[in-house]
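Second attempt. The first submission of NADP-dependent oxidoreductase domain-containing protein had a stray character pasted in from the spreadsheet, which I only caught after the job came back as garbage. Lesson logged: always re-copy from the clean sequence file. Corrected sequence (143 aa) follows.
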Amino acid sequence: MEVTTFEIVDVVKRSSYIVSTKLYWGGKAETERGLSRKHIIEGLKGSLERLQLEYVDVVFANKPDPHTPMEEIVRAFTHVINQGWSMYWGTSRWSATEIMEAYSVARQFNLIPPVAEQAEYHLFQRDKVEMQMPELYHKIGSY
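This time the job returned cleanly.
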């Protein structure tokens, strides 16, 4: 009887691709959604478990959370980066004002600012990307 062994030749190294995830929505409980420290940490740990990964490259705050102070949000994302669960954090559907607030809080407390924005951009929704974001880039540099 012949035993066949397989040699994996083309293994894709984790460092060769980018994985991102989004946080905001979760379960039905109040603590299972939003951008509280609790939900950011637990939500990202759950996402990593489902993805079967040790870290993601970018974790996005899927929408602004008016019920959580910006300092708590920025501190929580700094924490998950410092833990090695994510390399960077970004925003999705945040206004230029909200992004500037996050950036200012990060600079004030020596925390990690967001590095990306996933903006809605299409034929009928162009104002933010073409008018508001360039002003933000001018104030804080490339985003």
